[in-house]
Amino acid sequence: MRSQQLNSFEQLSCRKQSDIAADRDLNRQFTIEQLKTRDNWTNIGYLANVYLIMITTVVTALWTFYVVHSAGIGWWWNIPIAAIAVVVMGASQHQLGGAVHEGTHYTLFKDRKTSELVSDWFAAFPIYTTTQAFRLHHLAHHQFVNDPERDPNFDQAKESGHWLDFPIAHVDFLMAVLRQLNPVLLVRYIIARIRYSTMGVETNPYTRPNGLGSPSAIRVGVLFAVGAPIVLLPLAIMNWHATAAIALASMLVTVVGYYATIPENDFPKSRVNPVISQRTTQISRVVYLGILYAALTTAEYTTGAPMWGYFALFWVVPLFTTFPLFMILREWLQHGNADRGRYTNSRVFLANPLMRYAIFPWGMDYHLPHHLVASVPHYKLKDLHAYLLEDPKYAEQCRIVEGWSQPAGQGYPTMIDVLGPNYTPQGNPIHVDDATLELADVTDKAGIAAHAKASREA
Predict the structure, then answer these.
(1) pTM of the entire predicted model
(2) Cβ atoms within 10 A of the Cβ of 66, count?
């Protein structure tokens, strides 16, 4: 009898423990689902702040140029002013990349089409990409994070020569940063990124076999983006503004007509459907650039100011210098010297506001929780991190980083420390994040599953 009572008690105890575990899991799921909710207002403020900083930067720089000119002092005083502006604008372009990143995960706004349109027109088009193009690159990075065969970040970095042989010593890392100040290397990085984001590559797990589309469908858009300014700038310099207007209109109508009439199969196909059709997106991007180029030409004609020159200085120069520099630094810090473990493929960074603006935009300082639950919007990642700390495994393995190169006194390693041999994670099982695609419209689940299986077995 006593034995039966003990057995009953043990069974009851096990049931209670099972119920507690089930309740805990249910509560955990509910909390994370709550964190995934997004609204239609918060990111308007973030985007507005970025545009306000960019406008303020350009206006301030132009005002100081005017003061220098009016005072009759040496023109070389404009050089440090321009350099500061290029740094701030490159950081702001990185901020726009952060907005595209949110659009990539469908978290910029509640409505998918609104999210896609805002991401394209106010963030992706200005930095010469599209949300869907970056999505195919970035979601593959999430699902196959740090997989040298399937993570597009690795492939791209190898091609452009920007990945480092981690772990790396402090002095070697600092020398690597200094080498990135070479404009040739930065341009090389951007060109590689354009190829990966715009043209697509067969090594991307989300690329359909024989689905890259017609090369002409890519080249025509690139030709318009680069060629139109080459045609318009000399005409603007010679004050042939009517001719410039006719030339731009002719090029725009021709390119839009081309994209409106080519066969659907000429556009690239992938294993993740776009929110907005490729045809519509390509036409929209060309129209955006047409509006931009027309506005620059018109402003130069009406004001007499060198608007094309200002565009080159304040937008094109940062696009090929400080913007890629900040991106390279972020990728090194987020994933350099990390492995493929669930809790060790990235880190959490306690960074100051300037570093967050330039290097960790839109919640990228909380990068490990982002990789764990990618559908949580950036403004809730800090809360997600706090919640995940209740998980003993996360609390034990999550690497928190503080400061650039000097310890902050809280016992956390610095950003340079974690890239060294003392913080190389080892022995963690490979994690493939299939939940990355939970909000995506996947067209070839079997093809992606085959890549996931091969990645786990690598």
Answers:
(1) 0.91
(2) 10
